[in-house]
Specification:
The chain contains 5 helices and 14 strands. The protein has about 325 residues and is an alpha+beta fold. The chain folds into 2 domains: about 60 residues, no CATH class; about 260 residues, Sandwich (Immunoglobulin-like).
Length: about 325
């Protein structure tokens, strides 16, 4: 074997070794395709605490946001959020995190609006990538939405009302049970629901103006605001038998997703929101581990390559050939 052949073999072996290291570390090189968020395997994910330490062992993806400018009302002020994902073999967990100086969790005035967040996926029955905002008649989307005010409603009780409004007075209302005197509630308006028990809603849409609440609500979620930062957690079984819902498989190509945020302090609601481009959520079989610092990960990848290439170069210069003692 000539020296040139040995050097070429060394280069090919180094490339293969680098590819193997990148695959084992789940490191993806930059490309023009959609960004991918790997949902790693973890068995101890809390469904009540988005600030649980388990999320320090998850993969993360920083997403740039822009104002929604397709349909009126247009707007949106949030500029970025961080997405994380995990799965436990049965359920998918997605965490959204963003900076927000105010916790807008009440709408106790005509100019008060709620903070909110949402994720959008193509329905399992949709074969094409849907339009970014609200899908189309031939590309149905499944939307997971959380609102801070819904969480307040779900946790509301008389003691909290009395504490927050000490001078309020409630008198007898003789028509409380008659729907004609509560039309929004009678028509199923989500804002007027008196029995909300969850801060999240599973929704389906086929274009603007078609957003509807899913018949079944398999979705769970919770949001916690802490020191100027919201963390909102969504979870659901990987598979769903409900028509219009998204479905996720471990080890597959992943599912397209897009995120949206509403800032209550900026009077954002409806189309006034900030949205991300599509990214991919991909459940994988790798276990969740603490993220390594950049230079540590770089050393893990590059050091074996350097040792291998250096050894091959030394052997080539020494005149060694296979089968020769």
């Amino acid at each position: 074997m000539s020296g040139r052949t040995r050097r070429r073999a060394a280069v090919v072996a180094a490339v293969l070794l680098a590819a193997l290291a990148l695959q084992l570390l789940d490191v993806r090189l930059a490309a023009s395709q959609s960004a991918t968020l790997s949902a790693r395997l973890a068995q101890d994910v809390s469904t009540s605490d988005p600030w649980d330490a388990v999320w320090e062992r998850s993969s993360s993806l920083d997403l740039a946001l822009s104002a929604q400018l397709v349909v009126a009302p247009r707007g949106g002020t949030r500029e970025a959020l961080r997405a994380r994902a995990l799965h436990d073999g049965r359920r998918l967990f997605v965490l959204l995190e963003w900076r927000d100086a105010t916790e807008d969790a009440r709408i106790d005035g005509v100019t008060a609006y709620s903070d909110a967040a949402a994720l959008q996926f193509p329905a399992a029955s949709t074969a094409e990538t849907p339009p970014l905002c609200m899908g189309s008649p031939t590309a149905i989307v499944n939307i997971w939405q959380w609102k801070a005010v819904w969480q307040t409603d779900a946790q509301q009780d008389l003691a909290r009302i009395v504490t927050s409004k000490p001078r309020a007075w409630a008198d007898l209302y003789p028509y409380a049970g008659e729907p004609v005197f509560a039309p929004a509630r009678a028509l199923g308006n989500l804002v007027a629901r008196p029995d909300r028990v969850s801060p999240v809603e599973d929704l389906h849409a086929g274009q603007y103006g078609t957003l509807t609440t899913a018949k079944e609500q398999p979705l769970g979620g919770v949001g916690v605001w802490r020191a100027g930062t919201w963390r909102v957690l969504f979870w659901r079984d990987l598979a769903s038998g409900q028509d219009g819902d998204a479905s996720f498989g471990v080890g597959g190509a992943g599912v397209d997703a897009a995120a949206a945020l509403w800032d209550g302090s900026a009077a954002e609601r409806d189309g006034l929101k900030s949205v991300s481009q599509f990214f991919v959520i991909r459940p994988v079989t790798l276990p969740a581990t603490a993220e390594l610092p950049f230079w540590t990960a770089a050393l893990i990848v590059l050091l074996p390559m350097a040792v291998f290439v250096g050894g091959m170069t030394w052997l080539a210069r020494s005149g060694w050939t296979p089968g020769r003692a």
